[in-house]
């Protein structure tokens, strides 16, 4: 069903679960995994000119670290890539370029957008992706005795 899966990551805490779900899904379907991290060109362009080079270097280092985390978590071979541009556009473009069957992304990213259901990047990817998109929300830590514990557990993938 899925032969090629793109796992989009920005290295944030909220994306870790999406990475795990994407890798698990790829394992189950024996799919090829492509991990992608996008340096937001808008973030670089919006910074003061004297800081742009330093910011871009820091964002490249962060993207490399995000992909290294995916590689550490993966029990299968994967291809990694860092791109620069508008994140949603680059994720969809990459999915087209490699003829992906699925894109997996978190619902909130590094900036932790305060959107009702999805972060702005995830929403744009869902709207513009040429292939199906699996968005994975981060589960909130469950306090002892919390009645929502059952719903948090039922939100995980089952085989």
UniProtKB/TrEMBL annotation:
SUPFAM superfamilies: Adenine nucleotide alpha hydrolases-like
InterPro entries (UniProt xref): Rossmann-like_a/b/a_fold, Universal_stress_UspA, UspA
Signal peptide: none
A matching Pfam family: Usp
UspA domain sequence ranges: 1-137
Family statement: Belongs to the universal stress protein A family.
Protein name: Nucleotide-binding universal stress protein, UspA family
Organism of derivation: Halostagnicola kamekurae
